[in-house]
Each structure stands twice: as C-alpha cells, then as structure tokens.
Design a protein that fits this description.
This protein is of the alpha+beta class. It has 2 domains: 204 residues, no CATH class; 242 residues, no CATH class. It is 40% helix and 22% strand. The protein contains 15 helices and 15 strands. The strands form 4 sheets. Strands 6-4-3-2-5-7 form a 6-stranded mixed β-sheet. Strands 9-13-14-15 form a 4-stranded antiparallel β-sheet. A hairpin with a 3-residue loop joins strand 13 and strand 14. The longest helix is centred in the N-terminal third of the chain and has 30 residues.
Length: 460
C-alpha cells in the first residue's frame, strides 16, 4: 500500500486541459444568459469556440451544423440538443481527467461500469411529456436567462405536473421541478451576481439531455454481504429530497465503495428531522444503522456497477457495531477497493466527483485539512454546520469522507474519529446521524398526512 505522504501532493495540481475547458464553458454560457435569439459578436465567438473544440471529433459535423444554424437565426431543437451534448462532453472530459489524476495521486485504480442493454421502449405518453419539456427548454435558451419572466416560465407548470405523476420519469421531474422553482424564485434580478453563473446552464444542458433520451441504467448484479455506513448527505429542493448513504460493502475479501439513495417528493415545510421521518418510514433498518452506528447484513440486494445499491429493507438486518478505523483501511490511499467510473457521459461531471477516502493522519486548522504531505481546504459548502463544528474538527485525528471538486479538490468529512484506546469504536460524529435521530417539536408530516386523508375522504 502506498503511503499517504507520497501521494496527496498530487491533489493540488490540475491536469492539463481543465482550465481551457472551463474557459470554453464560460464563453458558451454567456449565450444562455443573453439568449440565442439576441447574440452579439462576443457571444457568437463563445459558441464558435465550442465548434472548434469538437472539430475533429464525431460530434464535430453536428456542432458545425448547429453553429451555422444559429448564425442564420435557425432555432431548431436539434441544434440545442447538440449544444447540450457538447457542453456535457466537455464536462465529461474534465471529470475523466480529474478522476485519473486523483486516482494516480492516491494509488487507486478504477474500472469502467457498463449499462443494461435489454431496455423497454419509452411509453408514448412519456414521449409527449418529454417533447413538451424540450420545447420549453428551447424557449428558455432563445429568450436568455436575463430576460426570463413569469410569463415565460408559468406555462410549463401543466407539463411539470404530468411529469411528476410518472414514477419512471422521476429523474426528469425532480430536476425540472427544482430548476423551474429556482428560476421562478430568482426573477426578476439585475445581474448574474444574484445566481450562480454556471448553475443554470448546467441544469439546462442536463435537462435537455435526459429529456431527449432516457438514459439506460447501469448493469446490475445481486449483492450478499455486509455494509458499513460512514455517513449520509441530504440533497434537496423545496419539493424533492434524497438521502445518499455512503458506505463500504464487504463480500469475502472484496471491498466495494457503495451508495444507497432514498428519494421522496415533499413540500417545502418538510425538512430536517421531519424529512427523516419520510426516509425512516421507507427504510427503518437502514436509518437505524446510521443513528446507532451499526453494520448491516444484506441478502441479494441489486448492486449497480456504478456502486449504487437499490435498497429493500426487508432484505437487511442490523449487525455489530461499526469499526470505522478498520473499515477506513479499505478507503486509504493505495487500498484496492472496487471503484467504478460512471458508464455514461451524462454522469461524468466535475460536481459529481465524490471519492470516498480515509485520512488516518487528519489535522484541521483555519479551514485547511493537512493530509499526508499535502493540504486541501474543507469543502464548506457540502459540510453542514449541524454535523461538524470547529471543535470537533480540531479534536479529530482521523476522518472518513469524500474528496469533492469545485475549482480545486476539497475534503468533505462524513465521520470524524479520535485516536486512542477506543480508536474507531465510536466516531466523534457521523454525518446525518444527529438529524436522523432528532425529535421535532411540530409533527409537520403527520399534520399534512391527516389533511390529505380528510381531503381524500371528502372526494370519496
């Protein structure tokens, strides 16, 4: 196993081409803000730069057609799907370069995941809803984010409600709902300073891609063995939330980095401990393992090659106490834990990089993490204050967490440990455990369920 001190310095250096890709994205995104229907000379240069980037690739001819069409003010859907594909491919190239650089620096290896090939055809009414979504996205791009008004956004509400009612389109519906509500809440605004410049073009491109063709899932096999959780992230907007549990799955001598995601529709008054009631109702064993610091045994759970596990609480049982020091050894630099790269370009985005890692020589000071011979910042945007305060970070001498990328590598702690006789037996804190076990003063979920029940009885 390679030592941390021999490898961590490589995380401070960006691989070749990443900065150039970022500059190309920034230039293209100006067109989305101004609107493709009113491009000036500078914005056209940004669009043409994308064409140059793909000139020798398989996407090159389509990109040339799309740019020529924009010059003629020909706003065909196919041109904008091409721009979305090009933008996504650029970020995919960034992702792959960053992943390869980090894995080389830390002595890890990654293998490609594959996708399922036996897929059902998309239902005809789904095609209608997705086409309506693409037309709305097309209108946003032509108008430009700077010129958005409620009159442009509100007509999409009817299509959005149709999408929300289709379980097989949950991915599209969740993304479009968050995007729609975020734009509606932000307008009118005076400058891009009021929103994240890159975020809206990112969401637009991703939405356009998944509404053009439903992405195939990764190949799946059955997993039987043990799972040791080391923390959870909650990702949410006002109407949808996901709890992403991170852990190590052990099957004999094999160790696999895994994620279990629980997702639910909600309303904006449901958050924090109230939100955890929804997750616990669906997967009580999984949530109890988190709150009580216990391992799990599972029988024949579907495990995708990407490391994503489809949870079935009936196939899981609580096991012994976690030993995070022992589990962390599977995540240390040089450890040969199974880690797979996403199979689809759509999922290869720098913001999605979340590499589980164990830091056995953790030191925190003034927002910086000392780790081997290198130093990287704390990923403050992804580190909830409710789980980790400065005193806990300073007291910790080992940590399990995620390497994230946002212009540079940063560390998001999920479990903090203190060395000594009880090393690894009980974490100082485990991300998400406090929120999952907290008791709320107001039973918002219960009140909403009671009101819904009364409404249904009246309709009956």
């Amino acid at each position: 196993m390679k030592k941390t001190s021999e490898n961590s310095e490589g995380l401070t250096q960006l691989p070749a081409g990443v900065l150039e890709a970022e500059q190309a994205l920034d230039a293209l995104d100006e067109a989305f803000w101004v609107g493709f229907g009113r491009l000036g000379a500078e914005q056209l240069k940004g669009v043409e730069a994308l064409q140059q980037a793909f000139g020798a690739s398989a996407l090159g001819p389509r990109m040339a057609d799309a740019v020529a069409g924009i010059r003629r003010s020909e706003f065909a859907e196919t041109h904008f799907v091409t721009f979305a594909a090009g933008r996504t491919a650029l970020q995919g190239a960034e992702h792959d370069a960053l992943l390869a650089s980090a894995f080389e620096a830390l002595g890890w290896t990654a293998t490609e995941a594959s996708v399922e090939t036996n897929l059902q055809a998309t239902a005809s009414h789904h095609e209608v809803y997705l086409e309506a979504a693409r037309q709305w996205l097309l209108e946003l791009a032509i108008v430009g984010f700077f010129q958005l008004t409620p009159e442009v956004l509100l007509p999409f509400q009817a299509t959005l409600e149709k999408l929300q009612g289709e379980p097989k389109l949950a991915r599209q519906a969740a993304l479009l709902t968050g995007f729609y509500e975020e734009m509606l809440a932000a307008i009118p605004f005076g400058s891009k300073a009021t929103v994240q410049n890159r975020r809206w073009p990112d969401l637009w491109a991703r939405a356009m891609i998944i509404c053009t063709k439903v992405p195939p899932p990764a190949a799946v096999s059955a997993f039987t063995g043990q799972i040791h959780l080391f923390g959870v992230e909650v990702r949410e907007h006002g109407f949808y939330a996901s709890a992403v549990f991170h852990g190590i799955a052990l099957r004999g001598a094999e160790a696999i980095a895994v994620r279990v995601t629980l997702s639910t529709w909600k309303v904006d008054v449901v958050f924090g401990s109230e939100l955890w009631k929804l997750f616990a109702a669906r997967a009580p064993t999984l949530v109890k393992a988190l709150t009580d610091g216990l391992a799990l045994t599972v029988d024949a759970l579907p495990l995708a090659e990407t490391g994503d596990m489809a949870w079935d609480d009936a196939k899981a049982a609580l096991a012994g106490k976690l030993d995070l020091d022992a589990i962390g050894a599977h995540l240390a630099p040089g450890a040969q834990t199974t880690r797979r790269a996403p199979p689809l370009p759509l999922d290869r985005h720098p913001a999605f990089l979340a590499l589980p890692i164990y830091m056995g020589d953790f030191q925190y000071k003034d927002g910086q993490i000392s780790f081997g011979a290198g130093t990287i910042p704390l990923a403050e945007a992804q580190t909830p204050a409710g789980d980790f305060d400065v005193d806990l970070l300073v007291a910790a001498s080992a940590a399990v967490g995620l390497l994230r990328f946002n212009g540079g590598w940063a560390f998001q702690p999920l479990a903090l440990l203190k060395k000594g006789k009880s090393a690894g037996k009980k974490p100082l804190t485990l991300a998400g455990a406090a929120a999952a076990s907290a008791k709320s003063k107001v039973d918002a979920v219960g009140i909403l369920q009671a009101k819904a029940s009364r409404l249904l009885r009246r309709k009956a």
